[in-house]
Amino acid sequence: TDAGGRFTLEVPAPAASQTLEVSYLGYETATVAVGSRTNFTVTLRESTSEIESVVVTALGIKREEKALSYNVQQVGAEDLTTVKDANFMNSLAGKVAGVTINTSSSGVGGATKVVLRGNKSISQSSNALYVIDGIPMYNFGGGGGTEFDSRGATESIADINPEDIESMSVLTGAAAAALYGSEAANGAVMITTKKGQAGALKVTLSSNTEFLNSFVLPEFQNRYGTGLNGTSSGSKIYSWGERLNPASSYGYTPNDFFETGHVYTNAVTVSGGTDRNQTYFSAASVNSDGIIPNNEYDRYNFTFRNTSYFLKDKLRLDASASYIYQQDQNMTNQGVYSNPLVPAYLFPRGENFDLYRRFERYNEGTKLMEQFWSADMEGGDLRMQNPYWIAYRNLRNTDKKRYMLSFSASYDILPWLNVTGRVRIDNANSLYTQKLYASSNTTITDGHYTEARAYDSQTYGDVMVNINKTFGDDWSLQANVGASVNNVKSDELSYRGPIQENGLPNVFNVFDLDDTKKRAEKTGWHDQTQSVFASVEVGWKQMLYLTVTGRNDWASQIAGSSESSFFYPSVGLS
């Protein structure tokens, strides 16, 4: 029929004894007698049986949901883009059963902890494995500073443009992720990205604006002023001194320091092509300023993908390239030093915070602008500074450039036999700097500078033979056999130290560091895992399914030991 359901048929005589069968996907088939009629009006009823649901599982293999012996939850693209987050994993909060999403304190674009069905380890990460188009992604970053370092951090998964995502499958069971071995011990999040669609050129524009404010603050008392044990003596960082009279109560809260943050997200996607060649392109930007003054995050994404079919559609080639440029400033982790939240929360109740909004004053002796802050509030191990001075004169900046290249080829040897090969290169270069201006504390007379250059790379390749065959009306077989190699490297070279006394104060570069106090550090590692794997699913009458998988890993971490490999099996019945 045409789009309106209209049709014409020319049938040989005798037509009166013929019957007409009308069918449509998702509706019950209708059969009508022709008789002497030449005009028909046919109404179809919706079918009560559901269309078989197909989900993406390990290695990008599509399976019928009823055949799986483990739980898979599918998330559509609209769940990630209706209300956008710079790290799209935060958009999963409350949308997947058994998944706990913990946003870090680093702010917009910060790392996110994703735990499937509870923590698995008290000493190592319990984060899920992220898999993009069947290829596992090593999630560089996410650590950030610890107790005495408040450096915030982003992570690799936060770089992905949510507009590029077609769907997500969350694999929470051990058997679900067995084909990925130890990397998926905490479960896996399968991400399928968009391809070009055949047809007329389609352009999509989207724009999103978000306003940020502090949601919950501790309850602060306003009865007692600076001091301890009901007196004004003792440490000046406590607020349990003498009772305040109304004129001396300023009612300060950290909201007097926080600002209204903004996140601007804009994206454009272009899709089109023919039946034999489809192209997809997207460009997106995230620009934000946080609720902490002078906290910024900017990211720019560019993605190109092309899919082509050759040899009567037996050969499929898929190539994609992505480039990401990301900058962040003053991401804050839950450490102590150089953390503006510490003085903002502990600011004494009997002090006037407005006096310190102008956070620096000119010192005629040093000829420098120096921090304006009460000496009484610098004591103790917390090393508190004026929170505005931290925001504008303890600068932490990261510039990261990342590119991803992937290519896959698939060839149908027989209608039920297929061979597939894939490769992905994922490289990132980043420069992190920390600039502590003169007078940040008593030991920093001319300034302190840190510069760290990091190089992260992952190269992955695999090849698979896929079988999908039925035997008569009762039996089906789906098998996947393959091998893979995953190569991951990380290197970082850093210099840090105070600016030399005869140098130029607050001029930050590695050449002006004090030769006797500067420190150079180089860290890095290189891991490689070589694997063979297989999955076999036998189905009976489309109602009973037995699935067996196995994977053997040769990991470089244990190379040369008595047992240089380990085996992962799984068995499931559905």
List the helices and strands and how they pair.
Blueprint: E1 19-22, E2 30-33, E3 54-56, E4 62-64, E5 72-76, H1 78-81, E6 99-103, E7 112-116, E8 129-132, E9 135-137, E10 165-171, E11 188-193, E12 199-212, E13 261-273, E14 277-289, E15 296-310, E16 315-329, H2 341-346, E17 360-363, E18 368-371, H3 387-393, E19 394-414, E20 417-436, E21 448-471, E22 475-498, E23 519-540, E24 544-555, E25 566-573
Parallel strand pairs: 8-11
Antiparallel strand pairs: 1-2, 3-4, 5-10, 6-7, 8-9, 10-11, 12-13, 13-14, 14-15, 15-16, 16-19, 17-18, 19-20, 20-21, 21-22, 22-23, 23-24, 24-25
Describe the structure in brief:
By secondary structure, this protein is mostly beta strands. Helix content is 3%, strand content 45%. It has a twelve-stranded antiparallel beta sheet with strand order 12-13-14-15-16-19-20-21-22-23-24-25. Strands 5-10-11-8-9 form a five-stranded mixed beta sheet.
